[in-house]
Structures are given as structure tokens and as C-alpha cells.
Amino acid sequence: MRIRFLAAAALGVAAAALSFAAAQAANGAAGPLTFVQAGKLLADPAAGKVETAKTVVLQDGKVVRIADGYVSEPGGVVVDLKDRFVLPGFIDSHVHLTGQQGPTSRLDEVTQSSADQAMVGAGYARKTLMAGFTTVADLGAENAAIFALRAGIKRGDVVGPRIIAAGSAVSIHGGHGDVNGYSEEVMHVLRPESVCSGADDCRRAVREQVWRGADIIKITATGGVLSNTAAGLSQQFSDGELAAIVESAHRMGRRVTAHAHGVDGINAFLKAGGDSIEHGTYLDNESIALFKKNGAYLVPTLMAGDYVARIAASPGNFFTPAQTAKALEAGPKMLDMARRANAGGVKIAFGTDSGVSAHGDNAYEFVLLNRAGLSPLDAIRAATVNAADHLGISAEVGSLAPGKAADLVAVSGDPLADVSVLQKVETVIKGGVVVK
């Protein structure tokens, strides 16, 4: 009971601190300085230089400077991490905060309201932040739920990572992203307005998502493992629809990322000028050339492949027959896909598809990226500078430098020697507030 009370109290303090920090910033009042004394510091993963005995000075949610030695000033707050390895807060470029796969997932779709989903998302957002992920891109959730959660976190009412939100995915009628496997009456009620057919209708869907509040446009260029339909994993949008989507999104200042497994959908989307691919299971040499030509990012989501393959092959499998067949087909191929992409020089951004696997376990993706041939430093770059560049937020996050967000994590041990230590983040600071 005492442990639960202390945990609840700690979360209350964190929420209050975040709210106070937000209020101070709004009022323009300068807050106290915080001195994060780091035994080892990887401030800029792009450079890869680890420095010792440094102090990161924070104020009003931003990094003020990085000083040599362990410094402090009267009236300042000291965070003693002299025996820790300090890095920028991590970025997960692919999550689904408002739910999590499990035996009740299909029932949850028809029993939870938007408000329920937002509250569920608040719990998963906290778990994600405590795992060291201070920024996430949520790539597929009910509009009202995820946009409310994004706003609540920004105000400081909810403890969680800052959210880049897509809202509902732009999808074809009957395809991955549409509602499948319920009675027709239920499916008509649940179908999002972002489902479209034909180039003009898909332009409408993109524009409506931007109007509703989407920071990024997520589309489902191919079939998907967890859609309850035996429609395969190949291209579903036509080439004309893909071109219309990308053009419309770019005209409205939004990047477009595509869920894509089949090589036909991957290559068609990249030829249409798409910005990034989620999953990429069946990419080929032509795909690799297109990635490099366009400067597009791959978000491999290796945890999703690992998870669905394990569930589908287990005695406790709760997937439908259609989901099971696709999970057993695609899941085992994803590690080799990432290995080929990395060897081919494709830019990789960190993303887990958490919500398929459990929220809070996000850092296991570092281990899987390492198994796919990325060095520990390159895996860290994927979750910091690369992910920030991929999402267009490099001016704010991804490294520690004056003027950037005061988002830091700390671990014991050396993640450049053993990247698995990032699964045990001991300290999390978001926006200058110690939340763990």
C-alpha cells in the first residue's frame, strides 16, 4: 500500500511540476536554474562524442548551456548524475497510445468512447515517458481521443511525452485502416471519415485530417497484419491516389508517412514522393535506391514484427485467422529487412509500433536494431537526431544544445558498449522537470 501511495504521490508531483513549468513559461517569468551534473554525456549523437564531468544547465524547459565540470549556483536545483550516462530524451516515431493489443482488443473497439480512449492513452503515455521517450509520433488513433491527449500533455495536465499526432489514418474503403470483421451496421458507425476512394476523395481525406488537427499524415499504402481481412499485404491505394495524397499533404505543410509491407506499395509510395515508410517488410533493391534518391526514412518497427510472430505461434494466440496468417508470414521477415536496408545505406528512424506490443517496453527496439546490424551509437542516433529530422523537429529535440528542449535521460552502464542498458532508464527529465 505504501509503495502504491508513494508512486501515486510521485506522479502527482510530476504533473504539478509540469503544470507549474507551463504556467511560468506562459507568464514570461524566468524560473530557477537546474544543474544536471553528468558523469558521462552524449549531448549530440550525430557527432558521437562522449564527454565526461559535464553540467547541463536548464531553465524554463530549455537547455541554457553545457558547462565543463560540476557547477551549480545558489538557488539552483542540482540533479546529481555523476555516476550515470546522460543522453537526450528518446523519440519513438511510431506508437498508438490509445490502446494495446490483447484478448479484448476487438471488444474495446465497440465499448470504449473517445473519452475512454483518451484516458487509456494517458496511462500508456505515462509508461512511455517513464521508459525515457520524451517525444512520440502517434500514427493512428481516433481523432478526438489523441488530439485531446496531445493537448492535455502540452498544458501539463497529463504526464506524458510530447505528441506528434496523425489522428485517423487515411485508408481505402475495405482495406487496412478501415473497419473490418464486425456487422455491417457496426462498421458504418465506426468507419472514420479518413477512409477514401479515388484521387479527389483522398485529397478530401487529407485536407479533413489537417483541418481536424493532424501534425502528420499517416496512410495505409498496403494491407496490414492486424486488419481483420484476408486481403494480403500488397498495395491497396492506386498510384493516382498515392500521388494525390502526397501532393495534398505537402501543399498543406504536412509530411506523409505510409504503413507499407508489400514491395509494390513501398515503391509506389516512394515514387509518389512520400516522406517515410513504416515497417517496409518486403522492400527490395529498387526500394533502397528510391529511399536514397528521395532522402526518405525507414521506420522498421522491429518490435511489432517480433511480437505478432510470437503471439501468432503461441498457445494463447488471440488473433483472428486472417491476422494469424499474415503475422506468421510477415513478422519473421522484418529483422532481415532492416539488416538489408541498413547495409544499403537507408536512413533509419526509431519506431516501435507500441500498442501492438506493450507500451513502456519501447527500448527493446534498440536491442533489435543492434541485431539488425546497427551499432549501438547508430541505434541511439535513430531514436534521437534521425527521428527528430524525420519528424521535422530537429530545432527542438534530438540533441542537447542551447535553446533546445531540456529532455534528458540517464542510465547506469555504457549504452555504446551494451545498448540493452537503455531498457533500464533510471532518470527522465522532460522540459526541465524531473519526472523520474
TrEMBL record:
All residue ranges annotated as the Amidohydrolase-related domain in the record: 85-435
Keyword Signal assigned: yes
Keyword tags: Signal
GO molecular function: hydrolase activity, acting on carbon-nitrogen (but not peptide) bonds
Domain of life: Bacteria
UniProt-recorded name of the protein: Xaa-Pro dipeptidase
Any Pfam family: Amidohydro_1
Keyword Signal: yes
Signal peptide per UniProt: 1-25
